Every structure is written in C-alpha cells, then in structure tokens.
Amino acid sequence: MPGAIHAEGLVKTFGEVKALDGVDLDVPEGTVMGLLGPNGAGKTTTVRVLTTLLQPDRGKALVAGIDVLRHPNEVRRSIGLSGQFAAVDEYLTGRENLRMVGQLYQLSARDAKRRAADLLERFGLTEAADRPAKTYSGGMRRRLDLAAALVVSPPVMFMDEPTTGLDPRNRQLLWDVIQELVRGGTTLLLTTQYLEEADRLADTICVVDHGRVIARGTADQLKARTGGERVEVVVHDPARIAAAREVLLGFGKGEVAIEEHTRRLTVPVAGGARLLAEVIRELDGQGVEIDDIGLRRPTLDDVFIALTGHAAEQAAAAKNKNDGGDGGDGGSGGGSSGAKDARDARDDDGTDRKEASV
Ligand SMILES: Nc1ncnc2c1ncn2[C@@H]1O[C@H](COP(=O)(O)OP(=O)(O)O)[C@@H](O)[C@H]1O
Ligand SMILES: [Mg+2]
C-alpha cells in the first residue's frame, strides 16, 4: 500500500535544467521524511509537485491517497505547506494572517482567534502581533509563515527548509513544534540542507542531488555509510599537512579530506575518545604541531563526499561540468582537495551517481 506521500518517476525540466530526473518517494503515514540536499538539488520542485503547485512532465504522485494530478483540489484540502512559496499577506497583521488561515480552514471565529493567539505566543510574535506583516524582519516573517502552516494540523504537511534563516533558539522551538505535530499523527515531508536537522526530525532520509534520489535510509544508516564520526585536525604549519595526512590515514576508515587554506584535515574513524588520544600522541611523535583537534559527527558535506565524491557546495559546479553546461555559477570555487581525492576514488570503482541503498 502506498504511504501518505507517494511519488513515482517524477520528471520536471525547466528549459535546459532537469530539476527532477525520476524521483521516487514513499512516506508511510505518521512518519517524517527528510529530503536532504544542497541548493538546486530539486527539493522545492519536488514539494511544489506534491502540493499541486507545479505539473511534472512525467511521473505520478499520491498524497493522502489522492492523485495529485487528477484531483489537485482534494489534495489541497488534506495538506499544509510552509516554505519559500507559502503566502503571508503583507498588509494584514500577524494576528489577522493567522485568523484568516484558521477561517479558510473552517475553524469557528472563536477557535481561529484562540489558535492565532496561541501560535503567536509560541513563536514569540505576541508583541508584534498587531503590526502589518510587511514591517516584520526576515526571521519574524519566517516564523509567521510557519505558524500559518500550523493553524490546523492537516494529515499531511510539507515544510520547505523550515529552519533556514532561523536563529538557534527559534530552530529549537520549531523542532519541538514539529515533534508535537508528528506525535499527533501528521505525516511530514520536510526539506533541509542540514544533516543535523534531518537527523533530529526524520524517520527516513532521502538524499537528493541533481534531481535524483542518490541514497535513502535512516540517519544512522547514512552516517554509518559515511564512516560515522570524524577526527578533525588543524595543523599549525601548512608544510606539515602531508605528514599529518599520513598519520590520519593510519587511523582512518576512508579518505582524508584536506582544506588547505584552513590547514584542516578530516578523516572518518571508528572509535571515540581513546582513538583521539592515540592520534594526538602519534601526531606529536611525528613532530606535527596542532592548533586544534576534535571528534565530530558527520555533516551533510561528509554524506555528500561519501555518496557522490563531491562536497555539497560544489554540486552546482560539478553539475555544470557533468552536463557540459556553460558554468553559470561563479561562486562555487575553493573546494577542498580532499573532496577531489574522494571523487577520483569514487570514479574508479564506478559507483558514482548510482543510488545507494543504505
Ligand atoms: N521555475 C523555474 N524555472 C527555471 N528553473 C527552475 C525553476 N525552478 C527551479 N529551477 C531549477 O531547477 C533546479 C532545482 O531547483 P529547486 O527545486 O528549487 O532546488 P532546491 O530547492 O533543492 O534548492 C535548479 O537548477 C533551479 O535553478
Ligand atoms: Mg528550495
């Protein structure tokens, strides 16, 4: 049986750009799926198709069991959406915006009023509640947009990068709200550029790149695939980077990523604090002076390097290269040489760009 959100073979092309290149998704009822990927991966396009805002060129989708292409109006009644395209009326106050949404969803005037006050309070907007939304800062608008999506708890929710642009306190607040929503039975698809966020909220994660799902699984499965924890070292002397790399290779379970300009080396490891102590001793023994060392959990970049052989911020540049495009992206230079090493290794075993079942 298909899940509460189900997509098969979604394709969407904008001119030369293949925004979606055969996306399959299935989100079981009452669970959270994180769609994780860098800028331009196709996250928003996926959400727009699933929320009936955009027609795919090919493929099909069911939301709450309803065909998105054939019965868009029915789908709209079953979903909530927040994100880059959700509408906040500039001229209404925050409170009026929320009350209007409540009434659109057929709450009584009294319930709509109560719900609005409650959400304004939760999102720290009570003081600004009676000012027009156009006077709000970016962060406040973001919170109002999220509050609007939460006025009613629809059976299926979509959130497109809900925490982008939020400060840590508000991000935490939103995470709490999302967890509460899901406990209430809502099925949620959220997009994010942060592994940490998908990790916190999602039951399953789909990693997308270039309009394709390149891996899916739980956060733990993805992290295991990326080699789990990292040792990260900043060496004092750039001339000692090569020596430090040799040491790390001896302890690591994969490629050593090197960022020359920050003198930072990173390697996936198995083993915690004791291993760290051994690395320090060995570096010391080899006369490599360090400015900083630590253990950290894998980031989206680590996932990307492991899966695609390129760092997330290089995705646009790599795409241009792969597609033989004319390279419209001027801001993607300065990648790490470690990522390049990983890419070369990946090309050798021919596993690049195939979906990984983790
Ligand atoms: N309306 C559009 N017209 C032209 N290109 C678009 C349009 N929407 C998205 N794209 C392109 O499709 C690709 C995927 O975009 P998007 O789904 O917004 O990615 P994400 O949300 O993951 O950052 C990008 O290359 C983007 O530039
Ligand atoms: Mg987007």
Automatic annotation (TrEMBL):
An MF annotation (GO) of this entry: ATP binding
Name under which the protein is recorded: Daunorubicin resistance protein DrrA family ABC transporter ATP-binding protein
UniProt KW keywords: Antibiotic resistance, ATP-binding, Cell membrane, Membrane, Nucleotide-binding, Translocase, Transport
InterPro entries, A to Z: AAA+_ATPase, ABC_transporter-like_ATP-bd, ABC_transporter-like_CS, ABC_transporter_ATP-binding, DrrA, DrrA1/2-like_C, P-loop_NTPase
Basic and acidic residues compositional bias, start-end: 340-358
Family as reported in the entry's similarity comment: Belongs to the ABC transporter superfamily. Drug exporter-1 (DrugE1) (TC 3.A.1.105) family.
Segments forming domain ABC transporter: 5-235
UniProt biased composition (Gly residues): 325-337
Membrane topology: Peripheral membrane protein
Region (Disordered): 314-358
Subcellular location: Cell membrane
Main location: membrane
Signal peptide: none
Coiled-coil region list: none
